[in-house]
Amino acid sequence: MRGISLPGSLAEYVALPANSLVPVPARLSFEAASTLPIAATTAWNAVCAADVGPGSVVVLLGTGGVSIFTLQLAKAAGATVIITSSSDEKLGRAKALGADHLINYRATPDWDGKVLELTGGLGADLVVETAGTATFARAVNATAPGGTLFTIGFVTGAEATVDLLPIIIKALKVVGNNTGSVSDLRAAVRAIAAARIDPVVDKVFSQEQAAEAYAHMAAGGQHFGKLAFKLDW
Predict the structure, then answer these.
(1) Which of 69, 120, 164, 196 sits 20 to 30 Å CA-CA off 96?
(2) Dist CA 133 CA 153 (whole Å)
(3) Shortest CA distance to 81 belongs to which of 54, 107, 60?
(4) Is 105 left (phi over 0), alpha (psi -120 to 50) or beta?
């Protein structure tokens, strides 16, 4: 994984195996395309794991890159999307992208109860869990019988105490994910190109602003969608 087990990509040149490359959709800038291998691929795997389609209900926690890509892909598939945030301004931006129901989790701490209310007590077919410790039990409660809890983040901690009975009784599918394969990326790029989805890049930094960019990301909750670097050629 580049940036984890291999050096990262904030470089003018990198060496890659040819079979790891996927063509960039012609309509996208390099900055927009840079959001696809991680966030878009993860979002694609989420909608595939839950077989999201017309009539599906999707719940997204927060407005980071994966959540926003999942919103766009789920709407392209005909799903109803419920999204949470602590910012009304960000919720407004999500609504402009097609979100059907907005929940400010600071104003409504029992957001899982609101999801059940909005779905007639059933819950969501897919919940994309991004926060970890603080939200996992509520995410379980918000998932419909037979639904998928797609867990990808731990910004509030990686340990969670959860009652197993709802998972067992509702026959939930709990799926962990750390992005995907080259074929997953290829499928995600194909879907994004076909649906003419524009990746949401909140802010673009220069290479010289690397420390500022990482500090901005580490601060959490400041951006909507993705952050990107613009490399000087």
Answers:
(1) 120
(2) 10
(3) 60
(4) alpha
Residue 28 has pLDDT above 80, yes or no: yes
Classify residue 209 by burial, with Cβ atoms within 10 Å: 0-12, 13-18, 19+: middle
Strand partners, 108: none
Coil, helix or strand for 9?
coil
For tokens 């019988």, the residue is 145
Give pLDDT tens digits for 58-105. 999 999 999 999 999 999 999 999 999 999 999 999 999 999 999 999
Q: In terms of pTM, does the model score above 0.70?
A: yes
- Look up residue 89 and give its two tokens: 């301004």
C-alpha to C-alpha distance for 49 and 127, rounded to whole angstroms: 11
Handedness of CA 31, 36, 37, 43 (dihedral sign): positive
Distance CA 178, CA 37 (A): 11
Q: What are the tokens at 142?
A: 């918000």
Segment 97-130, tens digit of pLDDT: 999 999 999 999 999 999 999 999 999 999 999 9
**For the chain, what percentages of helix, strand and coil (3-state, to nearest 5) are there?**
40, 20, 40
Residue 233 — pLDDT band, cuts 50, 70, 90?
A: low
Say what angle helices 65-76 and 41-49 make with each other, to 10 degrees: 50
Amino acid at 110: D
